[in-house]
Design a protein that fits this description.
Blueprint (H helix, E strand, L loop, with lengths): L7 H23 L2 H17 L8 H23 L24 H5 L3 H7 L4 H12 L4 H8 L3 H15 L10 H17 L2 H7 E10 L11 E2 L1 H11 L8 E7 L2 E8 L2 E11 L2 E8 L22
Parallel strand pairs: 1-6
Antiparallel strand pairs: 1-2, 3-4, 4-5, 5-6
Helix pairs in contact: 1-2, 1-3, 2-3, 3-7, 6-8, 7-8, 9-10
GO cellular component, one term: DNA-directed RNA polymerase complex
Protein name: DNA-directed RNA polymerase sigma-70 factor
Keywords: DNA-directed RNA polymerase, Transcription
Length: about 300
């Protein structure tokens, strides 16, 4: 029996074998869980419509479809971001909702929030080639087919992408213990109003970037420097709802601070750590980017003891 005549459940089983891979590619390509899920769903639709008896490799076919969809979507999204209010940051990824994505060290590091922010420096084609080669280890011949370029051109694109990222690629190897310790210290200093304690945790070139899309009190440009960042953090705390609670949860394979109320999540804060200090603070209060974190607001993650 040819694949095109197989029952629908068998076709679905084949797709399910690669669904995690497809989402992994799409999320890194787009920096958005919702968009990644849409791309995976559209890939499934096209898989059902394909003449599967002519598909030599389901993995290659499905990967090609999702990569091309993501490249097209990325180009459209960049245009739409021209009207976005303030900085645009990736949508955080819940470890508990997507545990299968964190099964290897390299995959874990490439899902770190700072890594995703770094990827925003790349155009859609550069981002695709870089991820497919350096993260997913596809051969140049396969990548060339996916992005419809020659192998030689793909090598040039990858070289250009690596140059754009430069030394920043080397910054993300931080131990889990170090991440947890600094996150706890940051939260404790913030709750206690300890400005000196907070300053001690920050690098001299610390940058605070907030994403609200105009929906809440968030700086519309990055704030640079430890004094300005610390004052801005304490000043911004007065806008947090009085019935809020805080806890540390796992997002993008790292500890993150969640602020939530009985009505839902107010915001999350993630860090990039370098040399045992915080180099970047990312604050997201745009409700559209917090919806998929709702199941974790009241999970069993221990709350910081004050």
């Amino acid at each position: 029996m040819s694949m095109c005549n197989k029952p629908e459940d068998t076709t679905t089983v084949i797709f399910q074998q690669y669904k995690t891979l497809l989402f992994s590619i799409a999320y890194r390509m787009l920096g958005s869980c919702s968009d990644a899920e849409d791309m995976v769903q559209e890939t499934f639709v096209r898989w059902l419509q394909a003449q599967q008896d002519r598909v030599e490799s389901p993995k290659a076919y499905l990967s090609t479809v999702v990569v091309r969809l993501c490249i097209d979507h990325s180009r459209l999204a960049r245009t739409q971001r021209e009207i976005y209010v303030g900085p645009w940051l990736p949508e955080p990824l819940s470890d508990s909702l997507y545990p299968e994505l964190f099964e290897s060290v390299i995959q874990d590091e490439s899902l770190s929030y700072a890594f995703l922010v770094m990827l925003e420096k790349l155009g859609p084609l550069e981002r695709a080639v870089f991820l497919l080669r350096d993260i997913f280890d596809y051969e140049y011949a396969d990548i060339a087919k996916m992005v419809e370029k020659s192998e030689a051109n793909c090598r040039q694109v990858l070289r250009r992408a690596r140059q754009h990222l430069g030394q920043q690629r080397l910054r993300f190897a931080v131990s889990r213990e170090q991440q947890e310790q600094l996150t706890q210290q940051f939260l404790r200093a913030s709750i206690e109003g300890d400005m000196q304690g907070l300053l001690h945790l920050l690098t001299d070139d610390i940058v605070f970037t907030g994403d609200s899309n105009g929906t809440g009190p968030q700086a519309r440009k990055p704030v640079i420097g430890p004094t300005r960042v610390t004052r801005g953090m304490f000043g911004g705390m007065r806008f947090i709802p009085p019935d809020s609670q805080v806890r540390i949860i796992n997002l993008n394979g790292q500890p993150a601070i969640m602020i939530y109320t009985p009505q839902g999540i107010y915001g999350v804060i993630l860090f990039e750590i370098q040399d045992n200090r915080i180099r970047n603070i990312y604050s997201i209060i745009n409700p559209a980017k917090l919806q998929r974190l709702m199941p974790n607001a009241h999970d069993s993650t221990p709350r910081l003891k004050e």
